[in-house]
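hi! just following up on the protien thing from before. the input was this:
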Amino acid sequence: MSAAPQPREDALAAARALRPLFEAEADATDRGLTPTDKVVAAATDAGIFQLMVPEALGGLEADADTLLDVFEELALADG
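and the predicted 3d structure came back as:
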């Protein structure tokens, strides 16, 4: 029997997987003063924007520790 999905680990893995793209797009993001379309699309696909949405509304409803860890990972990637 496999273990149940781990939302915290999944969210952190998703954020870590975005790091190369965030790093590659950092200059364009800084120039445009907004995330690039590539960054927004990848973050959407990874579920990053669902972290604070309540489960009742189809979101992930991540706890505060997970949110901080994910945001820290993304901030490190963006420089």
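DSSP finds three helices and no strands in the chain.
Residues 1-5 have pLDDT under 50 and may be disordered.
cheers
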